[in-house]
Amino acid sequence: MRSRFQPDRQLTVRMVTTLFLLGLLYVAFVAVLIVLIKSWILVVVIVGGMFVAQYWFSDRLALFGMHGHIVTPEEEPHLHGVVDRLCAMADMPKPQVAVSRMDLPNAFATGRNADHAVVCVTTGLLRRLEPEELEGVLAHELSHVAHRDVAVITIASFLGVLAGLLVRFTFYSQLFGGRSRNDQNTAMLFALVMTVSAVVYALSFVLIRALSRYRELAADRSAALLTARPSALASALTKVTGDIARIPTEDLRTAQAFNAFFLTPAFGKGADVATLFSTHPSLERRLEQLAEISRQLGGGGVH
Fold first, then answer.
1. Which three-class secondary structure state does DSSP give residue 110?
2. 140 marked as binding residue
3. 10 Å Cβ neighbour count for 170?
4. Would you say residue 291 lies in a domain?
5. N or C: which end of the chain has fewer CB within 10 A?
6. SS3 of 226, please?
7. Residue range(s) defining the domain that contains residue 271
8. Per the structure, how many domains does the chain have?
9. Considering 130, 132, 135, 141, which one is annotated as catalytic?
10. Peptidase M48 domain: from which residue to which, for each copy (predicted)?
11. CB-based contact 76:99 (threshold 8 Å)
């Protein structure tokens, strides 16, 4: 799919590199599964089944987890109007539009490709943002769809999820079944499986978050250039980040599993998001980039 969103070669290189490195991890990971389960067929069924489920149903799973539902133009005429206008400006297919009945102010895009994409906003976001701010947020989410990084992050996340599940499976197998065998080789095998799975999980965790932080900067940049109003997106980011800090902690826990897909992460008070393990760059870094784009467009700095 070609659109008028500015292409980002660095994002493309990072996505390809991340998938390549994760592919190498896949090889080691599947080898561990074969050693553990001792059945090629069962390995293919387990890995293939989980991958297909996550890839094909990622949009439905995300909507279900965030209590979102698809809305029609009659139900949300203003929201659909903004999406229609932005899709026309970007020359891209219109994704489905959804609303999550949550006070948490946020938005996300999901789906395996442009023809099966969903852009979802929360009622908390709609209530807080001005029209120009909402346009900036929706342009940000649409750029994720146009750049295909939603599908890449979904695929990339799968390995980490699978590795984490294997760590738990191996741990409980050893805890409840390993001791009765009294076999030193078996114990060493389980220890090896645990170690490889943990390493795979840790490496995939770091790779995915590095990609996620860059893709957010890329989406900010593309949205600002498409709308030519970087200050509106900056205002939305500042407002949403500040309001999330005031959301009750128990309400944030439900949303934190989807942080990699959100406009801004659902962290509670005192969380340090400017770390190697964050899914998003810091607010300061994002505002600096938008201020620079504003100067390039001749609009001065972002205030």
1. strand
2. yes
3. 23
4. yes
5. C
6. helix
7. 9-296
8. 1
9. 141
10. 74-293
11. yes
CA of residue 79 relative to chain centroid, distance = 22
Residue 301 lies in a domain: no
Q: What is the pLDDT along the chain (303 residues), one digit of tens a residue?
A: 566 777 788 898 988 888 888 777 777 777 766 766 666 677 677 667 766 766 677 667 778 777 889 999 999 999 999 999 999 999 999 999 999 998 889 999 988 777 788 999 999 999 999 999 999 999 999 999 999 888 787 777 666 666 666 666 656 655 555 444 455 666 676 677 677 767 777 777 788 888 889 999 999 999 999 999 999 999 999 999 888 767 655 555 556 556 667 788 765 444 454 566 788 898 999 999 999 999 998 855 554
> In angstroms, rounded to a whole number, what is the distance separating the alpha carbons of residues 10 and 218?
9
Q: Rg (Cα) of the chain, in Å, rounded?
A: 21
Query: Binding site annotation covers 216?
Result: yes
Looking up tokens 């929201």 gives: 79
**C-beta separation of 199 from 21 below 8 A:** no
State yes or no: 144 annotated in a binding site.
Answer: yes
Residue 175 lies in a domain: yes
Respond yes or no: is residue 141 known to be catalytic. Answer: yes
Residue at 4 is within a domain = no
